[in-house]
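Input/output pair, single chain:
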Amino acid sequence: MIIILFGPPGCGKGTQAKILSNTIDIVHLSTGDMLREAVQLRTDTGKLAEKIMEKGALVSDEIVAKIIHEKIVKKDCNNGFILDGFPRTLKQAQILDDILHATKRKINHVIEFGVNDSELVNRIIGRFTCKKCGTGYNDITSLPVVNNVCDKCGSKVFIRRKDDNSETAKNRIEAYHHETETLLPYYEKKNLLVSINALAAIQEVTKQIISIVKK
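Output:
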């Protein structure tokens, strides 16, 4: 099964992708994680991407596509995968179609995370992470069970991203509307697109997704 999760920054895609991955036993593929893995493993494509990133430039669609192709033909993707962060443009969607056609696969579900922009900004501003283990939290949706103590490792040290501020959040959301949201009609025409209420509680959002993928 191949699932694509769509939604602006802060909508909960990453959180739900991890939950879904564990629930239905398929791999969660994040573009950023795949790039870092390729660089760490010193693959040919990873070395090329590293040179570009060292210059502060954006990695091209073609390089990202190669990294995705290299990843999905591995054994751990035999049962399928969840894509989070790709495609972001129509060109990337067409590249993905070519990759899947070449590997004799097809997309099963494209799930759009429906949200309200003002609520999204509040969520992005509220994000923080355990410095020790990387577990993510949010002032609005997911505080630690014990105040200021990480649920996973017990650390009391948390960090917030410098770019998780109101101005940057609004810019990133606007970029999503301008670039990525235009992809929705593309998948709608393919009868793959389903929208969910991503502002519901985490458990409720998970239920919505599970009901879609188990149909």
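Residues 166-180 form the longest helix (15 residues). The two ends are 12 Å apart (CA to CA).
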